Amino acid sequence: MSLQTKLEKYAKIAVKMGANVQPGQLLVISAQVRDYEFVRLCVKEAYAAGAGYVQVDWSDEMNSLQTYMNVDTETLCDIPQWMYDQRKWAQDNGCCFLHIGSGTPGLMKEVDPAKMQAIQIASGKKFMPLQNYTMANEGQWSIVALPSAGWAKKVFPDKEEEEAMECLMDAILTAVRVQEDNDPVAEWKQHTSNLRKYCSWLNEQNFRELHFTNGLGTDLHVGLVKDHIWCGGNEDTVKGIEFNPNMPTEEVFCMPEKTGVYGKVVASLPLSYAGKLIEGFSLTFENGKVVSYHADKEEESLKNLVEFDEGSSYLGEVALISYDSPISNMGILFYNTLFDENASCHLALGRAYPMNVKGGTEMSREQLAQAGANDSMTHVDFMFGTRDMHIEGIKQDGTTVTVFDNGNFVI
User: Fold this and answer.
1) Dist CA 258 CA 313 (whole Å)
2) 393, 201 in Cβ contact below 8 A?
3) Which of 291, 398, 282 lies closest to 347, judged by CA?
4) Secondary structure (DSSP) of 316-364
5) 302 burial level (CB within 10 Å; 0-12, 13-18, 19+)
6) Residue range 164-191, pLDDT digits in tens
């Protein structure tokens, strides 16, 4: 089977299983200009599914790099109102989003971290009123990826560029269950069904907290909010439309109690954040808040993440993934959160997902806070799962149940 045929399959699941565009619905695609051929396939699939209109928002990371390097911070922090109005118009018209990522890890390493931080804060403040549309699943949204030369060479530094691109494309297609002779739609339906079985078991246990330990030095207690809900696989909008927000996905995830986290967590993989690659880092929590941190590389970027706003020093997500999983078993460090987070248990600093607490999608921000949810302008996942990860679930009566041993679910 040709690569073109595989890409057509990929476009189909991105549109139908990912964003799941509905008849007459507006689909907003964001992508790099270099990925125009795949975007065309997605547009074709969207109209075949009955999309009312497809809007494509183009970008170019090399132009963005030049802009960040040469334009002053004040100008870049002045977010034009038309950008806000355009997104608000799309959401007011009930759109769904499809983001196609192919960024180069570490591309912004020469940009002043303080400048990147200021721009992100300005953008976060500007678009915060629109954040709930995706965070609370008011509409469908999905993220997929394609290789770029810079990303491929980072993952496969010993290969020539063309071969590296081929290897990364093969790895991406494997991760999203696109093969020569399979039906990826059917496989995704079966896969999401399996993830929901884990969710059902975890919800039945109604753990008070989880205790994580491993050989890297992680010894972390993560309390869970009362009436928490474990989610994973496909999700539903408030109108009952199924979609897959991340492709690939291997996780089941829940809401930490904002002030119920204590202990130390050691990252098991680098984190690509704001164009920088943070490596060898750890965080220590007390009463839910990061009270100390360290990174072997890009510690200033880690500082900017932790201190982004009040909520970025607290957790908004805890996610469980067996070490023995398809992406992990590839043995590839992707330097990309979409893939690396699905090869490892992970946590997220920043805002919690309202769906992870009973009635959360109908709650105001104030009500969510009262329920124990963290709030922030950001939400950044980092990986801490290992082959020797052990997880004990502590129930409401204090009894314990082993959830993970040697890196995998034991249920």
Assistant:
1) 10
2) no
3) 282
4) EEEEE--SSSHHHHTT---S-HHHHGGGS-EEEEEPPPGGGBTTGGGS-
5) buried
6) 999 999 999 999 999 888 899 999 999 9
